[in-house]
Amino acid sequence: MISKFTRKVMLTMVIAAGAIAVFASNSWAADKIELRMATSGSETDQRSVAMVEVFAPMVADFIDFKPSYNSTMFAQGTELDAISRGNLEMSIASAQELAQFFPEFSIFATGYVHQDAAHQVAVFNDPLMDSFKETTENELGVKLLSVMYLGRRHVNLRQSKDELTVMTPADLAGVNLRMPGTDAWQFLGSALGAAPTPIAFSEVYTSLSTGAVDGQDNPLPTVVDAKFYEVTKQIILTSHLVDLNYIAISKEFWDNLTPEQQATMQQAADAAAESGRQKQLELEDSLVAFLKEQGLEVYEPDLAAFRSHVQAQYIGSEFAKSWPEGVLEAINSLGN
């Protein structure tokens, strides 16, 4: 009798303890704030990895972080609008996307504006960015937390270095260089000194193989992933576009956080951006060695000549009309 009573009491206590644990767990989860992030990148993209492995753990005490990949939540290019409408909390946005709302952001998608990954960070944290950040907050309801490094685009040619050595833009005269089809990309190809040719990315490998174009431009990870090194002989490390993304968050969401939570989230965003930046730089460095092993000639041209020539093409162009006066000079001075 005593044994049965004891077992019954113990079972009741176990059930009660379990219920308390579930209730506590649910209450703890309810105390967290849901933060949905939509990105066009995959789960293995270095930006996604940095947000999951670095950002999320640092804010885990008060944030329930819910990332969505491959544009499954919102179509690529619509994330900023979704944040503005209150339908999303966070995204990873490009300067090109922001330029659709505010043309002045096109300066950050222009050839040789950013000189390297460190220069990107210096520009983002400089007071010259204040007006850009204030515009996105006041007119779009989006706060830019930190800048992420995507990589440097380089010129990749079918000709060997013996056939064509490229040290200045003049050396690219007559070179049919595949560039993406928009006016901005085609302008950049011309500014580099080449004859830009618009060809879909899916057709680039075949076009290089048949000689329909002389070359293409992309970051080294893309050159390797798409196996362009199989149908080309040299890579000129022009670094003509140091591409970036911004970690963007709803300003309303941000304003509802406590000052302590805001400080933690800012630290987490900066840490995630730095982690992704260093991993991407390491990958790029390792790929130079890999491409050389594949027989490609990889070398650096006269970057000062390229930078001055390309920027001169933009001055007075349609693309430069929206740039605030003095900003280009201020950006350039940060790289000196």
Plain-language structure description:
The structure is a single chain. The chain has helices at residues 2-30, 46-58, 79-84, 95-101, 117-125, 130-140, 183-191, 204-210, 220-225, 251-255, 259-293, 303-314, 327-334; strands at 33-38, 63-68, 90-94, 142-157, 176-179, 195-198, 215-219, 234-250, 297-299. With 336 residues, the chain is α/β, with parallel strands linked by helices. Strand 5 (176-179), helix 7 (183-191) and strand 6 (195-198) form a beta-alpha-beta unit. Helix 2 runs antiparallel to helix 11 (259-293). Mean pLDDT is 90; it is low at 1-29.
Keywords:
about 325 residues, 13 helices, single chain, about 20% strand, alpha/beta
What structural class do helix, strand and pairing data support?
alpha/beta
N- to C-terminal separation? 88 Å
Number of strands: 9
Helix content: 40-55%
Shape: globular
SSE string:
HEHEHEHHHEEHEHEHEHHEHH
Largest sheet: 9 strands, mixed
The number of helical elements comes to 13
**Which residues sit in consecutive blocks of at least 5 with pLDDT less than 50?**
1-29
Q: What is the beta-strand fraction?
A: 15-25%
Return the average pLDDT rounded to an integer.
Answer: 90
Rg (C-alpha, Å): 25 Å
